[in-house]
Amino acid sequence: MITFFVVNGILLVISLLLLLAERFLVTYGECSITLNGDKTFSMLGGDNLLNYLNQHKIFIPSACGGKATCGFCKLKVLSGGGDILPTEEVYIDKKEREEGLRLACQVKVKKDVEIYIPEYLLGAEEFEADVSHITYLTHDIKIVHLAILNKTINFKPGQYIQFKIPGTDEYRAYSVASSPSDKSTLELLIRLVPGGLCSAYVHKVLMKGDRVVFTGPFGDFYLREESENDIIAIGGGCGMAPIRSILYFLREKGMPRRVFYFFGARTKKDLFFTKELRELEAKFANFKYIPALSEPEPGDKWEGEVGFVTQIAEKYIGDKRPKEAYLCGPPPMIDAAMKVLTREGVKPENIFYDKF
Ligand SMILES: Cc1cc2nc3c(=O)[nH]c(=O)nc-3n(C[C@H](O)[C@H](O)[C@H](O)COP(=O)(O)OP(=O)(O)OC[C@H]3O[C@@H](n4cnc5c(N)ncnc54)[C@H](O)[C@@H]3O)c2cc1C
Ligand code: FES
Prior knowledge:
single chain; Rossmann fold; 3 domains; 17 strands
Protein backbone atom coordinates (compact mmCIF):
# COMPACT_ATOMS: atom_id res chain seq x y z
CA MET A 1 0.00 0.00 0.00
CA ILE A 2 2.80 2.42 1.02
CA THR A 3 4.67 1.58 -2.23
CA PHE A 4 1.49 2.42 -4.21
CA PHE A 5 1.29 5.91 -2.66
CA VAL A 6 5.04 6.55 -3.06
CA VAL A 7 4.99 5.59 -6.77
CA ASN A 8 1.88 7.70 -7.43
CA GLY A 9 3.41 10.61 -5.55
CA ILE A 10 6.58 10.42 -7.62
CA LEU A 11 4.55 10.24 -10.86
CA LEU A 12 2.51 13.26 -9.80
CA VAL A 13 5.63 15.30 -9.04
CA ILE A 14 7.20 14.33 -12.39
CA SER A 15 4.00 15.33 -14.27
CA LEU A 16 3.94 18.69 -12.49
CA LEU A 17 7.63 19.29 -13.26
CA LEU A 18 7.05 18.43 -16.95
CA LEU A 19 4.10 20.83 -17.10
CA LEU A 20 6.12 23.61 -15.47
CA ALA A 21 9.09 22.93 -17.76
CA GLU A 22 6.85 23.13 -20.82
CA ARG A 23 5.22 26.31 -19.54
CA PHE A 24 8.39 28.19 -18.63
CA LEU A 25 11.35 26.58 -20.41
CA VAL A 26 10.13 25.32 -23.78
CA THR A 27 9.94 27.95 -26.50
CA TYR A 28 8.62 27.25 -29.94
CA GLY A 29 10.27 30.22 -31.66
CA GLU A 30 8.61 32.25 -34.41
CA CYS A 31 5.42 30.64 -35.72
CA SER A 32 2.67 31.81 -38.07
CA ILE A 33 -1.06 31.31 -38.48
CA THR A 34 -2.45 31.55 -42.01
CA LEU A 35 -6.18 32.21 -42.15
CA ASN A 36 -8.24 31.18 -45.20
CA GLY A 37 -5.16 31.13 -47.40
CA ASP A 38 -4.64 34.90 -47.36
CA LYS A 39 -4.05 36.59 -43.95
CA THR A 40 -0.89 35.50 -42.08
CA PHE A 41 0.00 36.46 -38.49
CA SER A 42 3.36 35.86 -36.87
CA MET A 43 3.94 35.27 -33.17
CA LEU A 44 6.16 33.49 -30.66
CA GLY A 45 4.56 30.04 -30.35
CA GLY A 46 3.39 28.38 -27.16
CA ASP A 47 -0.12 29.72 -26.63
CA ASN A 48 -3.36 28.33 -28.09
CA LEU A 49 -5.01 29.28 -31.39
CA LEU A 50 -8.00 30.91 -29.72
CA ASN A 51 -5.84 33.36 -27.77
CA TYR A 52 -3.77 34.26 -30.83
CA LEU A 53 -6.93 34.85 -32.87
CA ASN A 54 -8.33 37.11 -30.14
CA GLN A 55 -5.04 39.03 -30.03
CA HIS A 56 -5.44 39.62 -33.78
CA LYS A 57 -9.05 40.77 -33.33
CA ILE A 58 -10.58 37.65 -34.84
CA PHE A 59 -13.38 36.66 -32.51
CA ILE A 60 -14.96 33.23 -32.86
CA PRO A 61 -17.59 31.78 -30.51
CA SER A 62 -15.90 30.58 -27.31
CA ALA A 63 -18.54 30.73 -24.60
CA CYS A 64 -16.58 28.85 -21.92
CA GLY A 65 -13.57 31.14 -22.34
CA GLY A 66 -11.22 28.34 -23.46
CA LYS A 67 -11.98 25.68 -20.83
CA ALA A 68 -13.00 23.04 -23.42
CA THR A 69 -16.48 22.83 -21.91
CA CYS A 70 -18.63 24.51 -24.58
CA GLY A 71 -17.32 23.06 -27.86
CA PHE A 72 -18.15 26.35 -29.63
CA CYS A 73 -14.64 27.29 -30.85
CA LYS A 74 -14.50 24.73 -33.68
CA LEU A 75 -12.49 25.60 -36.76
CA LYS A 76 -10.73 23.70 -39.51
CA VAL A 77 -6.99 23.16 -39.05
CA LEU A 78 -5.53 22.41 -42.48
CA SER A 79 -1.96 21.82 -41.29
CA GLY A 80 0.30 22.16 -38.26
CA GLY A 81 -2.26 21.47 -35.51
CA GLY A 82 -0.80 18.20 -34.19
CA ASP A 83 -2.96 15.39 -32.86
CA ILE A 84 -6.46 15.86 -31.49
CA LEU A 85 -6.51 15.94 -27.66
CA PRO A 86 -8.77 13.87 -25.39
CA THR A 87 -10.37 17.15 -24.23
CA GLU A 88 -11.61 17.73 -27.80
CA GLU A 89 -12.92 14.27 -28.56
CA VAL A 90 -16.30 14.72 -26.92
CA TYR A 91 -17.10 17.70 -29.18
CA ILE A 92 -15.62 16.53 -32.51
CA ASP A 93 -17.35 13.58 -34.18
CA LYS A 94 -15.70 11.16 -36.62
CA LYS A 95 -16.76 13.06 -39.75
CA GLU A 96 -15.60 16.42 -38.32
CA ARG A 97 -12.30 14.83 -37.33
CA GLU A 98 -11.77 13.65 -40.91
CA GLU A 99 -12.49 17.19 -42.11
CA GLY A 100 -9.81 18.56 -39.75
CA LEU A 101 -12.09 20.29 -37.25
CA ARG A 102 -10.49 21.13 -33.91
CA LEU A 103 -11.25 23.21 -30.83
CA ALA A 104 -9.23 26.41 -31.24
CA CYS A 105 -8.73 26.69 -27.47
CA GLN A 106 -7.04 23.26 -27.36
CA VAL A 107 -4.66 23.61 -30.31
CA LYS A 108 -1.27 24.79 -29.10
CA VAL A 109 0.68 26.69 -31.75
CA LYS A 110 4.13 25.07 -31.89
CA LYS A 111 4.86 25.57 -35.60
CA ASP A 112 3.26 27.21 -38.64
CA VAL A 113 -0.47 26.52 -38.74
CA GLU A 114 -3.00 26.90 -41.57
CA ILE A 115 -6.65 27.31 -40.60
CA TYR A 116 -10.01 27.86 -42.26
CA ILE A 117 -12.88 29.80 -40.68
CA PRO A 118 -16.08 30.24 -42.72
CA GLU A 119 -16.89 33.83 -43.66
CA TYR A 120 -20.12 33.92 -41.62
CA LEU A 121 -18.12 33.40 -38.41
CA LEU A 122 -15.83 36.31 -39.12
CA GLY A 123 -18.43 39.04 -38.54
CA ALA A 124 -17.90 39.43 -34.78
CA GLU A 125 -16.20 42.61 -33.55
CA GLU A 126 -14.85 43.99 -30.28
CA PHE A 127 -16.86 46.74 -28.54
CA GLU A 128 -16.24 49.08 -25.63
CA ALA A 129 -19.21 50.15 -23.55
CA ASP A 130 -20.09 52.01 -20.38
CA VAL A 131 -22.44 50.53 -17.82
CA SER A 132 -25.33 53.00 -17.92
CA HIS A 133 -27.57 51.14 -15.46
CA ILE A 134 -27.28 48.05 -13.28
CA THR A 135 -29.86 46.75 -10.84
CA TYR A 136 -31.43 43.61 -9.33
CA LEU A 137 -34.40 41.99 -11.11
CA THR A 138 -34.65 39.11 -8.62
CA HIS A 139 -32.62 37.95 -5.61
CA ASP A 140 -30.00 36.42 -7.98
CA ILE A 141 -30.43 38.11 -11.37
CA LYS A 142 -29.15 41.55 -12.33
CA ILE A 143 -29.95 43.53 -15.45
CA VAL A 144 -27.02 45.43 -16.95
CA HIS A 145 -27.45 48.18 -19.55
CA LEU A 146 -24.38 48.75 -21.73
CA ALA A 147 -24.05 51.99 -23.71
CA ILE A 148 -21.74 51.17 -26.64
CA LEU A 149 -19.02 53.70 -27.42
CA ASN A 150 -18.20 55.04 -30.89
CA LYS A 151 -20.01 52.44 -32.98
CA THR A 152 -23.17 50.37 -33.23
CA ILE A 153 -23.91 46.63 -33.21
CA ASN A 154 -26.06 44.61 -35.60
CA PHE A 155 -27.39 41.38 -34.14
CA LYS A 156 -30.29 39.00 -34.64
CA PRO A 157 -32.90 38.61 -31.88
CA GLY A 158 -31.71 35.66 -29.75
CA GLN A 159 -27.95 36.02 -30.28
CA TYR A 160 -25.35 36.49 -27.55
CA ILE A 161 -22.21 38.50 -26.87
CA GLN A 162 -19.04 37.53 -24.96
CA PHE A 163 -18.25 39.74 -22.00
CA LYS A 164 -14.57 40.16 -21.15
CA ILE A 165 -13.99 39.78 -17.42
CA PRO A 166 -12.05 42.94 -16.53
CA GLY A 167 -8.42 42.31 -15.57
CA THR A 168 -8.38 38.87 -17.26
CA ASP A 169 -8.29 37.41 -20.76
CA GLU A 170 -11.42 35.40 -20.01
CA TYR A 171 -14.81 35.82 -21.65
CA ARG A 172 -18.30 34.58 -20.77
CA ALA A 173 -21.35 34.40 -23.04
CA TYR A 174 -24.48 36.45 -22.29
CA SER A 175 -27.58 36.57 -24.47
CA VAL A 176 -28.82 40.00 -25.44
CA ALA A 177 -32.16 40.75 -23.76
CA SER A 178 -32.96 43.94 -25.66
CA SER A 179 -34.31 44.67 -29.13
CA PRO A 180 -31.96 44.47 -32.12
CA SER A 181 -33.41 47.78 -33.30
CA ASP A 182 -31.49 49.51 -30.48
CA LYS A 183 -28.00 49.23 -31.90
CA SER A 184 -26.23 51.37 -29.32
CA THR A 185 -27.47 49.98 -25.99
CA LEU A 186 -27.56 46.34 -24.95
CA GLU A 187 -29.38 44.86 -21.99
CA LEU A 188 -27.99 41.69 -20.37
CA LEU A 189 -29.51 39.53 -17.62
CA ILE A 190 -26.86 37.96 -15.42
CA ARG A 191 -27.53 35.35 -12.75
CA LEU A 192 -25.12 34.91 -9.86
CA VAL A 193 -23.55 31.44 -10.15
CA PRO A 194 -22.11 30.37 -6.75
CA GLY A 195 -18.31 30.37 -7.09
CA GLY A 196 -18.56 31.84 -10.60
CA LEU A 197 -15.90 34.29 -11.71
CA CYS A 198 -17.76 36.50 -14.15
CA SER A 199 -21.19 36.47 -12.56
CA ALA A 200 -19.65 37.31 -9.16
CA TYR A 201 -17.77 40.19 -10.79
CA VAL A 202 -20.98 41.53 -12.28
CA HIS A 203 -22.94 41.13 -9.05
CA LYS A 204 -20.34 42.32 -6.56
CA VAL A 205 -17.98 44.67 -8.39
CA LEU A 206 -19.48 46.10 -11.59
CA MET A 207 -21.00 49.54 -11.13
CA LYS A 208 -22.74 52.23 -13.15
CA GLY A 209 -20.10 54.20 -15.08
CA ASP A 210 -17.62 51.31 -15.41
CA ARG A 211 -16.11 50.71 -18.84
CA VAL A 212 -16.25 47.15 -20.19
CA VAL A 213 -15.27 45.24 -23.32
CA PHE A 214 -17.28 42.61 -25.16
CA THR A 215 -17.19 40.80 -28.49
CA GLY A 216 -19.98 39.64 -30.73
CA PRO A 217 -22.53 39.00 -31.97
CA PHE A 218 -22.49 35.21 -31.90
CA GLY A 219 -24.81 32.22 -32.13
CA ASP A 220 -27.30 30.42 -34.30
CA PHE A 221 -30.10 30.65 -31.73
CA TYR A 222 -32.06 33.49 -33.31
CA LEU A 223 -35.56 34.11 -34.65
CA ARG A 224 -36.17 32.65 -38.12
CA GLU A 225 -37.78 35.82 -39.48
CA GLU A 226 -38.86 34.39 -42.81
CA SER A 227 -41.10 31.75 -41.18
CA GLU A 228 -44.84 32.15 -40.54
CA ASN A 229 -45.13 29.25 -38.09
CA ASP A 230 -46.60 29.68 -34.62
CA ILE A 231 -43.89 30.18 -32.00
CA ILE A 232 -43.57 28.13 -28.82
CA ALA A 233 -41.03 29.81 -26.54
CA ILE A 234 -39.95 28.04 -23.36
CA GLY A 235 -37.58 29.70 -20.93
CA GLY A 236 -36.26 29.53 -17.40
CA GLY A 237 -34.02 31.88 -15.37
CA CYS A 238 -31.81 34.00 -17.62
CA GLY A 239 -33.19 32.04 -20.56
CA MET A 240 -35.63 34.96 -20.46
CA ALA A 241 -32.97 37.12 -22.15
CA PRO A 242 -32.91 35.92 -25.79
CA ILE A 243 -36.66 35.26 -25.77
CA ARG A 244 -37.31 38.82 -24.60
CA SER A 245 -35.20 40.10 -27.50
CA ILE A 246 -37.28 37.98 -29.91
CA LEU A 247 -40.53 39.26 -28.34
CA TYR A 248 -39.38 42.89 -28.57
CA PHE A 249 -38.53 42.36 -32.22
CA LEU A 250 -41.97 40.82 -32.91
CA ARG A 251 -43.70 43.60 -30.96
CA GLU A 252 -42.08 46.19 -33.22
CA LYS A 253 -43.39 44.26 -36.26
CA GLY A 254 -46.93 44.26 -34.81
CA MET A 255 -46.71 40.65 -33.48
CA PRO A 256 -47.32 39.03 -36.89
CA ARG A 257 -47.16 35.44 -35.52
CA ARG A 258 -48.99 33.55 -32.79
CA VAL A 259 -46.69 33.18 -29.79
CA PHE A 260 -47.02 31.09 -26.63
CA TYR A 261 -44.35 31.92 -24.06
CA PHE A 262 -43.95 29.44 -21.17
CA PHE A 263 -41.64 30.60 -18.39
CA GLY A 264 -40.61 28.24 -15.61
CA ALA A 265 -39.56 29.36 -12.13
CA ARG A 266 -39.36 27.72 -8.73
CA THR A 267 -41.24 30.29 -6.64
CA LYS A 268 -42.82 33.70 -7.18
CA LYS A 269 -39.60 35.45 -6.17
CA ASP A 270 -37.92 33.97 -9.28
CA LEU A 271 -40.39 35.65 -11.65
CA PHE A 272 -39.53 38.95 -13.32
CA PHE A 273 -40.75 41.16 -16.20
CA THR A 274 -44.27 39.92 -15.36
CA LYS A 275 -45.82 43.38 -15.74
CA GLU A 276 -44.24 44.04 -19.15
CA LEU A 277 -45.19 40.58 -20.44
CA ARG A 278 -48.78 41.01 -19.23
CA GLU A 279 -48.90 44.39 -21.01
CA LEU A 280 -47.71 42.73 -24.21
CA GLU A 281 -50.45 40.14 -23.79
CA ALA A 282 -53.05 42.86 -23.33
CA LYS A 283 -51.89 44.61 -26.50
CA PHE A 284 -51.66 41.57 -28.82
CA ALA A 285 -54.36 38.88 -28.80
CA ASN A 286 -52.02 36.38 -30.49
CA PHE A 287 -49.41 36.56 -27.68
CA LYS A 288 -49.93 34.45 -24.58
CA TYR A 289 -47.62 34.47 -21.51
CA ILE A 290 -47.86 31.41 -19.26
CA PRO A 291 -45.59 31.45 -16.20
CA ALA A 292 -45.44 28.20 -14.20
CA LEU A 293 -44.07 27.69 -10.68
CA SER A 294 -42.61 24.30 -9.80
CA GLU A 295 -42.57 24.83 -6.00
CA PRO A 296 -44.80 27.78 -5.06
CA GLU A 297 -44.57 28.81 -1.42
CA PRO A 298 -47.75 29.27 0.65
CA GLY A 299 -46.97 33.01 0.92
CA ASP A 300 -46.88 33.26 -2.90
CA LYS A 301 -50.71 33.03 -3.08
CA TRP A 302 -50.09 31.69 -6.59
CA GLU A 303 -53.16 31.04 -8.71
CA GLY A 304 -51.33 30.35 -11.96
CA GLU A 305 -49.96 27.12 -13.41
CA VAL A 306 -48.09 24.76 -11.06
CA GLY A 307 -45.62 22.13 -12.28
CA PHE A 308 -42.63 21.84 -14.56
CA VAL A 309 -42.88 24.32 -17.38
CA THR A 310 -42.55 21.57 -19.99
CA GLN A 311 -45.55 19.66 -18.55
CA ILE A 312 -47.56 22.88 -18.61
CA ALA A 313 -46.53 23.61 -22.21
CA GLU A 314 -47.80 20.17 -23.25
CA LYS A 315 -51.31 21.11 -22.01
CA TYR A 316 -51.52 24.08 -24.34
CA ILE A 317 -49.94 23.07 -27.63
CA GLY A 318 -52.03 20.19 -28.88
CA ASP A 319 -53.40 21.78 -32.07
CA LYS A 320 -52.05 20.81 -35.47
CA ARG A 321 -50.85 24.25 -36.63
CA PRO A 322 -47.22 24.30 -37.87
CA LYS A 323 -44.92 25.32 -35.06
CA GLU A 324 -41.41 26.49 -34.38
CA ALA A 325 -39.84 26.37 -30.92
CA TYR A 326 -37.28 28.58 -29.17
CA LEU A 327 -35.96 27.10 -25.93
CA CYS A 328 -33.54 28.70 -23.53
CA GLY A 329 -32.65 27.66 -20.01
CA PRO A 330 -30.92 24.92 -18.00
CA PRO A 331 -30.02 21.69 -19.87
CA PRO A 332 -32.61 19.44 -18.09
CA MET A 333 -35.37 21.88 -19.06
CA ILE A 334 -34.27 21.93 -22.71
CA ASP A 335 -33.98 18.13 -22.87
CA ALA A 336 -37.48 17.69 -21.39
CA ALA A 337 -38.90 20.35 -23.74
CA MET A 338 -37.39 18.62 -26.79
CA LYS A 339 -39.17 15.39 -25.85
CA VAL A 340 -42.52 17.13 -25.35
CA LEU A 341 -42.26 19.13 -28.56
CA THR A 342 -41.29 16.22 -30.79
CA ARG A 343 -44.09 14.16 -29.21
CA GLU A 344 -46.45 17.00 -30.13
CA GLY A 345 -45.29 16.87 -33.75
CA VAL A 346 -42.88 19.85 -33.85
CA LYS A 347 -40.23 18.96 -36.42
CA PRO A 348 -36.71 18.69 -34.90
CA GLU A 349 -35.38 21.08 -37.54
CA ASN A 350 -37.86 23.69 -36.24
CA ILE A 351 -36.59 23.51 -32.65
CA PHE A 352 -33.86 25.97 -31.72
CA TYR A 353 -32.20 26.19 -28.33
CA ASP A 354 -29.41 27.62 -26.17
CA LYS A 355 -28.57 25.61 -23.04
CA PHE A 356 -26.94 27.32 -20.07
C1 LIG B 1 -24.84 30.90 -25.48
C2 LIG B 1 -24.84 31.22 -23.99
C3 LIG B 1 -25.59 32.27 -23.53
C4 LIG B 1 -25.60 32.56 -22.16
N1 LIG B 1 -26.39 33.59 -21.72
C5 LIG B 1 -26.45 33.83 -20.38
C6 LIG B 1 -27.30 34.88 -19.89
O1 LIG B 1 -28.01 35.56 -20.63
N2 LIG B 1 -27.30 35.10 -18.53
C7 LIG B 1 -26.53 34.33 -17.66
O2 LIG B 1 -26.57 34.59 -16.46
N3 LIG B 1 -25.72 33.36 -18.13
C8 LIG B 1 -25.65 33.09 -19.44
N4 LIG B 1 -24.82 32.11 -19.91
C9 LIG B 1 -23.92 31.43 -18.94
C10 LIG B 1 -22.64 32.30 -18.78
O3 LIG B 1 -21.93 32.30 -19.99
C11 LIG B 1 -21.69 31.78 -17.71
O4 LIG B 1 -21.44 30.42 -17.92
C12 LIG B 1 -22.23 31.98 -16.30
O5 LIG B 1 -22.47 33.36 -16.05
C13 LIG B 1 -21.20 31.47 -15.27
O6 LIG B 1 -19.98 32.14 -15.46
P1 LIG B 1 -19.03 32.44 -14.21
O7 LIG B 1 -17.77 33.01 -14.76
O8 LIG B 1 -19.78 33.20 -13.19
O9 LIG B 1 -18.79 30.99 -13.65
P2 LIG B 1 -17.47 30.09 -13.88
O10 LIG B 1 -16.34 30.69 -13.14
O11 LIG B 1 -17.32 29.86 -15.36
O12 LIG B 1 -17.95 28.73 -13.25
C14 LIG B 1 -17.90 28.49 -11.85
C15 LIG B 1 -18.57 27.19 -11.52
O13 LIG B 1 -19.96 27.23 -11.82
C16 LIG B 1 -20.34 26.23 -12.75
N5 LIG B 1 -21.25 26.87 -13.70
C17 LIG B 1 -20.91 27.60 -14.79
N6 LIG B 1 -22.01 28.08 -15.40
C18 LIG B 1 -23.07 27.65 -14.69
C19 LIG B 1 -24.46 27.83 -14.82
N7 LIG B 1 -25.02 28.54 -15.83
N8 LIG B 1 -25.26 27.24 -13.88
C20 LIG B 1 -24.74 26.54 -12.85
N9 LIG B 1 -23.41 26.34 -12.68
C21 LIG B 1 -22.60 26.88 -13.58
C22 LIG B 1 -19.07 25.78 -13.42
O14 LIG B 1 -19.14 24.43 -13.82
C23 LIG B 1 -18.05 26.00 -12.31
O15 LIG B 1 -18.01 24.91 -11.45
C24 LIG B 1 -24.81 31.80 -21.26
C25 LIG B 1 -24.04 30.74 -21.76
C26 LIG B 1 -24.07 30.43 -23.09
C27 LIG B 1 -23.25 29.28 -23.59
S1 FES C 1 -13.84 28.01 -25.95
FE1 FES C 1 -15.21 26.57 -25.17
S2 FES C 1 -14.45 24.73 -25.97
FE2 FES C 1 -13.06 26.17 -26.72
